[in-house]
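Tokens help. One example:
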Amino acid sequence: MSRAKAAAAIGLSVQAYSNREAGATEIKAFEVVILADLLGIDPAVLFDGAGDIWPGAGYPMQVPNGEPGRAAEVEEFLYHLERIRDPILRRDVADAIKALARAVNDPG
């Protein structure tokens, strides 16, 4: 994949993308998720320790184009989740969020 294509996918100039690639600028979590989708891989493989909490390949993470602000919400969530260093607590938080989402979507 070209730098231009990757940069366009996450809404950056080629120079800004190159800065992230070189480590001069920090890459944002939602950018990693978008790039993983573009590459057809599970984003969990790109996040240290995320394999314990990411829903996996059966639930592809995509930031819908039609929802302004959604990417920022995803980025903020992943930022805070990543800050939880205890893997058991991180998994528990993720499980609680999944349970809340199920309850909201299936009030049954």
